[in-house]
Amino acid sequence: MRYEKSCGAVIFRRDEGWNVLLIRHARGHHISFPKGHVEQGETESQTAEREIREETGLSVRVDRRFRAENRYNIRPDTQKLVVIFAAITDQAEITPQPEEIAEAFWLPVEEANARLTYERDRKIMRDAYAHILKYHAE
């Protein structure tokens, strides 16, 4: 069995209410969160910050107190672990990386829940949102 590991984040931005960034991946076309493979010597949160910057142009503050895992097989012989943090940004303008991202957009949290492709991502987003409300409600 081969193993792959990616890290990313549910990214929140506050306007009148909380918005979340969703992306439609260029490959697979599913709607999820920005993430990418860990590079040698990186921590999980460093990977998340780098991948988010590369894929969206956003600088984020990763909150390492929230960490969720999603494991699944991407091929019969390959298991993938995706680590997702909660993150916050003040930036609204997204610069999608065309090789990776077909579309990137901000949505109110309630609307984002309906747009996510996978139920596991919906649960992670709901849990990350509860964390944001608890620790970043100021």
Subunit arrangement of the protein: single chain
Rounded to an integer in angstroms, the radius of gyration calculated over CA atoms is 14 Å
**In the CATH classification, which architecture applies?**
Alpha-Beta Complex
The overall average pLDDT, rounded, is 95
Give a quick account of the main beta sheet: strands, pairing sense, barrel closure. 7 strands, mixed
The number of helices is: 3
Order of helices and strands: EEEEHEEEHH
The fold-level CATH name is Nucleoside Triphosphate Pyrophosphohydrolase
> Level of helix content?
25-40%
Distance between the termini: 46 Å
Count of all domains: 1
Strand content: 35-45%
Q: What is the overall silhouette? A: globular
Number of strands: 7
CATH superfamily annotation: Nucleoside Triphosphate Pyrophosphohydrolase
Q: Structural class of the secondary structure composition?
A: alpha+beta
* Low-confidence region ranges: none
CATH class: Alpha Beta
Quick overview:
The chain is α+β, with helices and mostly antiparallel strands and 138 residues long.
